[in-house]
Amino acid sequence: MNPPVALDPSPILRTAFAFWNSKVLLTAVDFGVFTVLGGGKRMSGAQLGVALALHPRAIADFFDVLVAMQFLDREGDGPEALYFNTPETALYLDEASPRYLGGIMKMLNARLFKYWHDLPEALRTGKPQNESKYGQGGIFEELYSDPVMLEQFLNAMAGLSRLNYEAFAEKFDFAKYKTLCDVGGATGLLCIEAAKRHAHLQCVTFDLPPVEPVAAKHIAAAGLSDRVKTAPGSFFSDPLPTADVITMGLILHDWNLEQKKLLIRKAFDALPQGGAFVVIEALIDDARRENVLGLLMSLNMLIEVGDAFDYTGADFRKWCLEAGFASVEVLPLGGAFSAAVAHK
Ligand SMILES: C[S@@+](CC[C@H](N)C(=O)[O-])C[C@H]1O[C@@H](n2cnc3c(N)ncnc32)[C@H](O)[C@@H]1O
Predict the structure, then answer these.
(1) Does 285 lie in the same domain as 197?
(2) Mutate to test the pocket of ligand 1, among 141, 152, 208, 301 (most ligand atoms within 8 A of CB)
(3) Which of 90, 109, 186, 236 is exposed most, by the fewest CB atoms within 10 A?
(4) Ligand 1 atom nearest residue 210's Cα
(5) What CATH number is given to the structural domain containing 17?
C-alpha cells in the first residue's frame, strides 16, 4: 500500500476555529478597545483593563491575542508592556475616525453571531432565523420598530458599504450624468461619496420614512444638504424618483426573485433613455466557485429573510435584458464587491 499523501489539514483547522478569532475581534470592537486607544495612545494591560472593566484573568490573553492577530501592536513584554493601535485599526476601528467600519462588526456581534447558530435549522427549513422568527414582521419592520436597532442597522450598513461606495464614486464615469438617485440609501452614504467627488451631481437618497432623519443628519454633517436631498417612500408601493443614474447597494439581495424583478422593472421605468441602473453587491462569480463572501452573504440572506438570495453578474444581466435594458457590464470594486451596470 502507498503511504498516505501529506495533504495539508491547516485550511480545515483554520476555518473550524475561525469563530474564536471572529468573536475576539467583534468583542474588542464592541468594548471600544480601538477607540480607547485612539489618538495614538499607548496603555498597559492593567490600564486598559480598568478602562474597559475587564477581570484581571482576562487581560493578558485578550490583548496579546489581538497582538498575535495583528489588530494591536505592543511595545515590550510582560505586565509593563504598552499596547497601541496598528495603522489599520486606528483608521478603521477607532470610532472617532471618519472611515470607521466598526458598525457592521457591532451588528455581527449583537445579532448575526447568535442567529448563525441556527444555520442548521435554516438549511433544513429554508426559514429565517433572526428577530422575525419570533415576531410578526419582516426584517425591516422588526429592526425599525426600535430606534436603537434602527441606528445600529444603519451604522452597520455604513460600515459594510463605505469602501465600496468610495471605490464606486471614484471608478464610475459620472461625467455624462447630472442626477443620481440611490434607492434604499440608508444614511445617504453613496450619495455623499458621489457628491463629494463630482461637483456637478444632484443626488437623492430614497428610503423608508423612519430612515429620513438619520440620512438628513449625515448629509448635513458632510455639508452637502444643497446637493443631496432625501426622499421618503417605499420602493414597493411608490414609484422611484426619476434620475439619470439609479443605484441600489445591497438591495436586490434582500428580496426573492419576483421582488428583485419588480425592482429592476421600477428602475427601468424611472430612468431616461441612456440612463444607468447600478447594483453594488458582493456579486457571486458566474461559476459560483470563488467569491466566498458573496456565497456566505447569500446564506446570510437565508438566515435574515429565507427566500432572499445573492446572485451572479450573469443572473443580473439576464434579468436586466428581460426588463428591456440594452447592455450590462460588471465593474469590480476591489475585494468581494462589484458594481453591475445596466444601460437603458
Ligand atoms: C441592506 S440595507 C442597504 C443600505 C445601503 N444601500 C447600503 O448598502 O449600505 C437595505 C436598505 O433598504 C431599505 N429598505 C427596505 N425596504 C424598503 C422599502 N420598501 N422602500 C425603500 N427602502 C427600503 C432599508 O431601510 C435599508 O436602508
Answers:
(1) yes
(2) 208
(3) 236
(4) 25
(5) 1.10.10.10
Mean pLDDT of the region 259-286: 98
Which residue among 92, 112, 141 closes a domain?
92
- Domain count across the chain: 2
Judged by average pLDDT, the poorest of 148-157, 252-261, 273-282, 283-292 is: 148-157
Q: Are residues 165 and 81 located together in one domain of the fold?
A: no
What is the residue range of 281's domain? 160-343
Name the pLDDT band for 152 (thresholds 50, 70, 90): confident
Q: Which residue from 251, 278, 281, 333 has its CB within 8 A of the most atoms of ligand 1, so it is best to mutate?
A: 251
In a domain, 135, yes or no: no
Assess if residue 288 is contained within a domain: yes
Does any ligand 1 atom lie closer than 6 A to the CB of residue 275?
no
Which domain CATH number covers 246? 3.40.50.150
Any idea which residues carry the catalytic annotation?
Answer: 253
DSSP lists the bridge partners of residue 229 as: 204
Cα of 305 vs centre of ligand 1, distance in Å, is: 14
- Grid cell at residue 193: 461619496
pLDDT over 90, % of the chain: 90
DSSP category for residue 241: P
Under the banding of pLDDT at 50, 70 and 90, the label for residue 147 is confident
Q: Would the pLDDT of 1 be above 90?
A: no
Residue 238 Cα: closest atom of ligand 1: 20
What is the rounded average pLDDT for all residues in the chain?
95
The answer to whether residues 67 and 205 belong to one domain is no
Output the CA 180–ligand 1 centroid distance in Å: 16
Q: What angle do CA 308, 313, 318 make, to 5 degrees?
A: 85
- What atom of ligand 1 comes closest to residue 237's alpha carbon? 19
Residue 138: inside a domain: no
Asked whether 236 lines ligand 1 (CB < 6 A), one says yes
244 and 324 belong to one structural domain: yes
Residue 116 resides in a domain: no
Q: With helix as H, strand as E and coil as C, how does 114-153 read?
A: HHHHHHHHHHHHCCCCCHHHCCCCCHHHHHHCCHHHHHHH
Query: Which of 206, 4, 227, 26 lies closest to 116, judged by CA?
Result: 26
